[in-house]
Amino acid sequence: MTVDDRFTRDLRQDPPTGTRNEVVVGPVSDWATDFSHVEPEWAADPYPILDDLRDRCPIAHTGRFGGGWLPTRYEDVAAIAYDTERFSSRSIIMSNYRPPLEIAPVGGVPPISSDPPFHHDARKLLLPAFTKKAVATREAATRAFCHSLIDSFEGAEVVDAARDYAQHIPMRVIADMLGFPPEDGPRFREFVESALEGVNLPPEERMAGMDELFDYLYTQIRDHVATPRDDLTTYLIEAELYGRKLEPAHVAGTIALLLIAGIDTTWSAIGASLWHLAKTPADRERLVAEPGLLPTAMEEFLRAYAPVTMARLVKEDMHWRGVDMKADDWILLSFPSANRDPAQFDRPEEVIIDREINRHAAFGLGIHRCVGSHLARMELRVALEVWLERVPVFGLDDPSAVTWAPGQVRGPRTLPIRIG
Ligand code: HEM
User: Fold this and answer.
1) Nearest C-alpha to atom 39 of ligand 1 is from which residue?
2) 97-128 pLDDT tens trace
3) CATH topology of domain 28-418
4) What pTM was estimated for this model as a whole?
């Protein structure tokens, strides 16, 4: 028997080389030339901004974050998502730091940070855990957990549906899949916030947050090396690629991705759906009366309030659809904006819960399309089914108290709902 000593040495990495740029904060002067997805105006309601840009300047620019572009038409978002020759996933979070070129084609959090050909192999490793069939085995436990959250509302007139309900569901599901202690939920929240919302911090501060995440992950991984279990962490520790076990950084990077991609996104989708139903009694009443409509309604919530925007880095200087892109410019790949393009969707600004044709891009387009989409849909459906069954009558307690996460994953973070 060989001893697995991959994880015994100190796996902390040297501060990476790469490009750092100055942090710019403050109100945006013109969204066409100075956009910033971390400013409060964007977090509160990005749709009027995106609609205006789509008409006026469909590929907007910013000098912030060291320079980047924001395509707002479906057609342009799709073209970039499919074009891995000219746009790299070496970093998919737009920040003030660009990792060095040598990090490609693997990237820090494979497969989302990987380019072809490596991407295909890293992605393939994950697929078996996320099939419809594999996900179905988790439905009963997810449903029971949702009921237990609602049980805890007993006696309350107002609850925070983002903090007390939506966030816990994906945290519990992914903790179970990875074999992590469920009571570490509050730490997961810190990691998610530092990875996705701390994007405009000085790079060194941001990296300190990432170090904490990886220290935590290596502790969990070492525990699994010592005591293997039937979960995704042990599966990744044992997995092989090209006849060899994975590099420690690959194992930890993929787990980091699953933890972060698995939590914030679904938390946002559940929260945005409940927010919509709380402020739209006609839709809420119809869904309570016709539960069979939920799968269709859910797709509409995903289209209209798509939580995820991803980034790319331009590989080489080029003239692209009327603009001059430079190597290492960011692209903010707005699936939410693509989903509201009138050239692609009829009446895109309206939420039509029985919309028949709805080929939305909330789960992305092309080779990086979401691996967790079956899981996300199961969690969203079960979360809404249980809520509507247990709390059929509800409304926003104070619309002005609702807050939304800024940055690339957008959803309600404070959502006071009157239930009594
Ligand atoms: C409503 C919830 C979710 C939404 C809207 C969403 C959205 C997305 C999007 C837009 C991408 C494409 C990224 C890109 O093009 O760079 C993506 C990729 C990915 N998502 Fe999700 N996601 C959700 C939930 C989940 C869950 C629950 C998991 C797993 C626990 C997950 C795992 C992944 C992974 C592993 C990738 C990378 C795939 C690749 O690079 O080949 N996602 N997701």
Assistant:
1) 368
2) 899 999 999 999 999 999 999 999 999 999 99
3) Cytochrome p450 (1.10.630)
4) 0.96
